[in-house]
């Protein structure tokens, strides 16, 4: 309905503005991916069948462009149903977001492994054991 469309549109705008205004871009980026915002925005590119569906799709695309700093030739329409150009852009967005999601998850696993190794080294120090210099170097400490 119309109220739902407005909520969706304003949510897209708010997300993009909040992230753009973040004092700590890395924190904002982490939150966006942690909450699966890009995937949810791509899902909104499929919004159809309501009077304002075209506007919802346009706002979702604008938010994706602002958050991910990428464009895929999305040409918004005021139509209730997606145009072929919107459908093509949506497919590109979905593939791109999936690729970026995988990269983000790999990065998070790597960071978690580094945090674990750092905690282990700290525990060893607390027990009076000297950490292995090679392990410290692998963690990016010392050198």
Can you put this structure into words, describing what you see?
The protein is 71% helix and 0% strand. With 143 residues, it is mainly alpha-helical. It has one domain (2-138). Helix 1 (2-20) packs parallel to helix 4 and helix 3 packs antiparallel against helix 4. The longest helix is centred in the last third of the chain and has 43 residues, at 84-126. It is elongated. The termini are far apart.
Defining traits:
143 residues, 6 helices, mainly alpha
Write the layout of secondary structure elements.
Blueprint: H1 2-20, H2 25-34, H3 37-44, H4 53-68, H5 84-126, H6 133-138
Enumerate how many helices there are, as a single number.
6
Radius of gyration: 21 Å
Q: How many β-strands, per DSSP? A: 0
Number of domains: 1
């Amino acid at each position: 309905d119309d109220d739902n469309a407005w909520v969706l549109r304003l949510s897209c705008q708010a997300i993009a503005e909040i992230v753009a205004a973040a004092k700590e871009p890395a924190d904002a980026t982490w939150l966006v991916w942690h909450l699966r915002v890009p995937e949810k925005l791509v899902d909104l590119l499929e919004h159809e069948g309501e009077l304002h569906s075209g506007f919802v799709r346009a706002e979702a695309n604008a938010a994706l462009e602002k958050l991910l700093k990428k464009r895929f030739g999305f040409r918004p329409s005021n139509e209730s149903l997606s145009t072929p150009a919107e459908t093509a852009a949506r497919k590109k967005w979905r593939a791109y977001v999936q690729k970026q999601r995988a990269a983000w998850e790999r990065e998070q696993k790597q960071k978690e492994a580094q945090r674990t190794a750092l905690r282990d080294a700290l525990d060893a120090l607390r027990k009076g054991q000297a950490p292995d210099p090679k392990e410290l170097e692998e963690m990016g400490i010392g050198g």
